[in-house]
């Protein structure tokens, strides 16, 4: 296969998979009354693992730049899912903290995501999944 065909296949497949996953998440969230985007979910998922982290930590965990993260946090704050709290050791630093509403969303959203992931990965063997992980990690490493 020549280079052009490789690029076309990669561009088409990655774009289609990404779009299909995002569409599935958004539709499922909306059907369950969860009014968040997939990007907002990725931030919340980080906070459900460890609450009260810096915006920079969230940028690192989600691979988002600071302006994008600021917009995401602003939207989550407006939806009363997170709040900014000054770090008691350094008042120049804000820690992103889940609200009660944000914490309460964890179980419902996580169960829904687990169902989507199970459906998405059905009929894919562990070996195929491992090969896919390896390839995607190599692609990310090449881009960094």
In the sheet with the most strands, the strands line up as 1-3-2
Question: Strand count, sense and closure of the main sheet?
Answer: 3 strands, antiparallel
From the alpha-carbon coordinates, what is the Rg to the nearest angstrom? 18 Å
- Total tally of structural domains: 1
CATH architecture: Orthogonal Bundle
Please report the first level of CATH classification, the CATH class. Answer: Mainly Alpha
CATH-assigned homologous superfamily: Winged helix-like DNA-binding domain superfamily/Winged helix DNA-binding domain
Strand/helix succession: HHEHHEEHH
CATH topology: Arc Repressor Mutant, subunit A
Query: Averaging pLDDT over every residue, what do you get?
Result: 90
Number of strands: 3
Q: How many helices?
A: 6
Q: Any idea what the shape is?
A: globular
Strand composition percent: 5-15%
First-last Cα distance = 26 Å
User: Which regions have little confidence, pLDDT < 50, spanning 5+ residues?
Assistant: none
Structural class, please? Answer: mainly alpha
Helicity range: over 70%
């Amino acid at each position: 296969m020549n280079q052009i065909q490789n690029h076309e296949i990669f561009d088409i497949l990655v774009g289609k998979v990404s779009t299909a996953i995002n569409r599935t998440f958004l539709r499922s969230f909306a059907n369950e009354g969860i009014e968040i985007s997939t990007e907002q979910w990725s931030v919340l998922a980080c906070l459900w693992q460890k609450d009260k982290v810096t915006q920079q930590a969230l940028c690192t965990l989600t691979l988002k730049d600071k302006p994008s993260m600021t917009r995401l946090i602003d939207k989550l704050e407006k939806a009363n899912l997170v709040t900014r709290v000054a770090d008691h050791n350094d008042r120049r630093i804000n820690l992103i903290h889940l609200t009660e509403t944000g914490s309460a969303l964890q179980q419902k959203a996580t169960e829904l995501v687990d169902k989507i992931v199970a459906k998405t990965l059905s009929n894919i063997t562990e070996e195929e999944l491992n090969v896919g992980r390896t390839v995607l990690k190599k692609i990310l490493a090449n881009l960094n």
